[in-house]
Amino acid sequence: MVKDSPYPEPWELLSRIIENSQGVQSSQEAAARILGVLELADPPLRFQTAQWATDFVSPKLAADLDGRQVDQANAAYLALGGLVRS
After folding, report:
1. Where are the alpha helices (DSSP H) in 1-86?
2. Which of 2, 13, 17, 56 has the highest CB neighbour count under 10 A?
3. Which pLDDT score, from 0 to 100, does residue 73 have?
């Protein structure tokens, strides 16, 4: 809980969610995933560092979980204006 928060209800809800899920990830675990993605020749536009996060966002992002389709669409749009991504 954030002391003197003007939003106690959202903080309480978030605290309960964290308590009841595996939503807390160590910084070492997240860093290892980030370093792994940085080493990829063709890294995704977005990725999740934990399986629970993938499970949480996948219904919303099911068509483009890693962002490659959005990235391709952006590149095509920029190409229309003569802008080329390196």
Report:
1. 8-19, 27-38, 51-61, 68-80
2. 56
3. 76
Q: Are 70 and 45 in contact (CB under 8 A)?
A: yes
Q: Dihedral, CA atoms, 10, 12, 13, 19, nearest 10 degrees?
A: 140
Any idea where the domains of the chain sit in the sequence?
Answer: 8-80
The two structure tokens encoding residue 78: 């920029």
Residue type, 84: V
In contact, 23 and 52? CB cutoff 8 Å: yes
Q: What is the pLDDT of residue 22?
A: 65
pTM above 0.85, yes or no: no
